[in-house]
Amino acid sequence: MQHNSGQDRPFGPRSACGLDFGTSNSTLGIHGSSGPHLVALEGAHVAVPSAVFFAAEAGAKLLIGREAVAAYIEGIDGRLMRSLKSILGSALIDERTAVYRRRIRFSEVIGLFLEALKRRAEVAQDAPLDAVVMGRPVHFVDDDEAGDRHAEETLRTVAEAIGFREVSFQYEPVAAALDFERRHVSGEKIAIVADIGGGTSDFTVVRLTGGTGERDERGSDILANGGARLGGTDFDRQLSMRTFMPGFGYRSPMKRGDIEVPSAPYWDLSTWSSVHQLYDPKRLAELREVRFDAREPALIDRLMRVVETRRGHSVLIAVEEAKIALSDRERVETPLSWVAPGFGVEATRVDFEDSARALCDRLGNTARACVAQAGLTSGDVDFVFFTGGTSQMPSVRTAILSQFDNAAAIDGDRFGAVGLGLTIEARRRYG
Known about the structure:
This protein folds into 3 domains: 16-172 and 419-430, Nucleotidyltransferase, domain 5 (2-Layer Sandwich), CATH 3.30.420; 187-231 and 361-411, 2-Layer Sandwich (Nucleotidyltransferase, domain 5), CATH 3.30.420; 233-355, no CATH class. 38% of the residues lie in helices and 22% in strands.
């Protein structure tokens, strides 16, 4: 893992921070007199949704987090962008996107969001932040070392541009292990940290020895790392395509009868990073042509209503909420009367888990391969430490735990464990 030594001057523990820039939520932590803690960045909330809202009104301030989502839901004219981290490592990161009267690089959008977090933390502690340990997934991009390096360097450049003089990185599951160790471990244990986030899933096999989180180096304790560019947004997409999109015309027949309506708009409507592409006037013109030739034009009318009102994120939010609800319930009803009177979608856990089975299998296989990479067997693992919002899905937990019969499952702070671990690491490196 690269470490940027930067300036020669020493850093006090309160001038450094740990920053967990997540696909769904982000946190920032500092190490104070009472130990590491996450800063309340949005009211009393320490976890901020990774979202920005650009209002159409000239001179309007940039909104982030819950305020950004609320402005969109309230119907304020503007552009909502979520799951910003998923753009890292993709071809989109160096491209510009339209934000009303200007075009802005996606990397600049990430910078605006992270700068807002940094500024709020500095106000909260009444001191500047000069150094940061940023979390990163084991793989920003699967099987693409050049793309992975480019993603990290983009994030480094963004961090330096917003005022951090020292920037270094730590794998997110390693950071989670540091927080886990100080809370749960006495004696030497072997754990696999399963950090299942919004955009990536990362695994680290680590040797834990309670009370040693402040040791200078832990490299020999990190036995293996593995991961996949697979996370909560992929499960959202499966639920959307299986249960929600048919109500908008997905897989419905054209008048010819032997072909279905084009599927591309439905994939865009089910993907956080590409939903905005539907709002191109050319796409709406194409939908009108599809409607004319569709056997069930009323279904296409629903899709066109979403596109015409630029409410694609409202559909994605509804899908995400249904996914979360299915962790505790067998069936969820989602009213969508704003699309069409009386329209709604029923989702069941059985259907959802069936549609997502391949994703769960991939997570289980990745966890098992990570342990094998460490030269261990499944029976050597004492703990499976779960963190990340997607780790609460029953099917995800089952798929991973089934690989380790003798391991105890322990849950960390779903949205805070990585940030706290990065803060511990920031103290070690810069304190």
